[in-house]
């Protein structure tokens, strides 16, 4: 059989389709030729997208999270400043860390909230770029498949949302991870909310496969920068604090694979925490609209910056340097960090 192995899941066919555009099929066929068999794990790749860099090989983008409120709670003000900074940095794309539509995601592909909270809010010229979105827990309270549907791309061509995927941008590779299904309490104690778990059950298999896929994608990555994006926190001093399940299950994989940055939302604040155990920098950008002023969980070891108001962050990457800047609702620079690759590689 030229196409190797077989699993019983529906997602296999999707993965084969994804592989058509990615590397998995070629690898698979090469392996088949050389060894006469192919590991199923090579098929279990996350869907991949390509993002070109600037002419000089650098890359810049913005990260915003926890935003869709039809412009209220300063969402429009944050959007305005994103537009200005986006223009200044000549950004390549925008990343959303999830909780795209409050309070309960989208009701369907025809939910007017999509245009009211996205299309008509992020109107600046510089924001007319590709948006790479993940899902947050609030998105799971609506029709998740609507947010994942290609129909939205017809309404607004910037939109791209998948549960988990890989974005290859030459000097950097981004690993978008669907973190909501990790969190036990949404299953055991949903507090009256209904979550749309279609496509996630059986949960145990979903999580096992996801962790395997992320580990494999990270291990195979040869990019200078490995950046993981998820909705939930790993390290946070905000309202929700650390996410226990993700610290236990995902963080060890990120540490083993020398991930540089973990970028999340969920806590409605901006923060930067560094780790004692690894070079991973933990960045929260969850200030896209309603912020929880004063709601600090605890003071964290390694905390470099915490701001419990609205805002977003920008990132400029070259082969050797990452410059990350946090901004408030007025576009004022709040905190800046530089990460240099040469430092780590000389260690
Ligand atoms: C690369 O080009 C962009 C303009 O597209 C510029 O903003 C940036 O500063 C340049 N970066 C380097 C490292 O030269
Ligand atoms: C909007 O931002 C300003 C400045 O940070 C803040 O004082 C105000 O409370 C914010 N409004 C809301 C509704 O969050
Ligand atoms: C970060 O690096 C940039 C150049 O890439 C430099 O202009 C800036 O001063 C540095 N910032 C810090 C805080 O070291």
TrEMBL record:
GO molecular function, one term: metal ion binding
Domain Calcineurin-like phosphoesterase: 60-269
Cofactor binding: number and manner: Binds 2 iron ions per subunit.
Key words of the record: Glycoprotein, Hydrolase, Iron, Metal-binding, Secreted, Signal, Zinc
One Pfam family, short name: Metallophos
Hydrolase in keyword set: yes
Reaction(s) catalysed (UniProt annotation): a phosphate monoester + H2O = an alcohol + phosphate
Subcellular location: Secreted
Leading EC class: hydrolase
The family this protein is said to belong to: Belongs to the metallophosphoesterase superfamily. Purple acid phosphatase family.
Cofactor(s) listed: Fe cation
Catalytic activity, EC: 3.1.3.2
Stated name of the protein: Purple acid phosphatase
Record-linked InterPro entries: Acid_PPase (IPR024927), Calcineurin-like_PHP (IPR004843), Metallo-depent_PP-like (IPR029052), Metallophosphoesterase_PAP (IPR051558)
Chief location: secreted
Residue numbers binding Fe cation 1: 66, 99, 102, 268
Binding sites annotated in the UniProt record for Fe cation 2: 99, 137, 231, 266
UniProt keyword annotation of Iron present: yes
Assigned GO CC terms: extracellular region
């Amino acid at each position: 059989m030229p196409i190797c192995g077989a699993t019983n899941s529906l997602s296999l066919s999707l993965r084969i389709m994804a592989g058509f555009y990615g590397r998995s099929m070629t690898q698979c066929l090469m392996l088949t030729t050389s060894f006469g068999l192919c590991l199923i794990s090579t098929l279990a790749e996350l869907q991949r997208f390509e993002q070109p860099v600037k002419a000089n090989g650098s890359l810049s983008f913005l990260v915003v999270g926890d935003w869709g409120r039809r412009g209220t709670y300063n969402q429009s003000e944050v959007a305005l400043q994103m537009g200005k900074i986006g223009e200044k940095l000549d950004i390549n794309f925008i990343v959303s860390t999830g909780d795209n539509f409050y309070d309960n995601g989208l009701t369907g592909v025809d939910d007017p909230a999509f245009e009211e909270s996205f299309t008509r809010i992020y109107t600046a010229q510089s924001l007319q770029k590709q948006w790479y979105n993940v899902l947050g827990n609030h998105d799971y309270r609506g029709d998740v498949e609507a947010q994942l549907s290609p129909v939205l791309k017809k309404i607004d061509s910037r939109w791209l949302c998948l549960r988990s995927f890989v974005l290859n941008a030459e000097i950097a590779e981004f690993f978008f991870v669907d973190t909501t299904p990790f969190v036990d309490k949404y299953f055991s104690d949903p507090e009256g909310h209904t979550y749309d778990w279609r496509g996630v059950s059986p949960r145990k298999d979903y999580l096992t496969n996801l962790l395997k896929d992320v580990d494999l994608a990270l291990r195979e990555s040869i990019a200078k920068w490995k950046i993981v994006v998820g909705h939930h926190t790993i390290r946070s001093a905000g309202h929700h604090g650390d996410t226990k399940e993700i610290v236990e299950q995902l963080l060890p994989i990120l540490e083993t694979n020398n991930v540089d940055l973990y970028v999340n939302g969920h806590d409605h604040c901006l923060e930067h925490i560094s780790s004692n155990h690894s070079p991973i920098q933990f960045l929260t950008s969850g200030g896209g609209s309603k912020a929880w002023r004063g709601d600090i969980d605890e003071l964290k070891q390694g905390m470099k910056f915490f701001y419990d108001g609205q805002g977003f962050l920008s990132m400029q990457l070259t082969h050797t340097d990452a410059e990350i800047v946090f901004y408030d609702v007025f576009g004022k620079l709040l905190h800046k960090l530089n990460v240099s690759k040469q430092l780590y590689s000389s260690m």
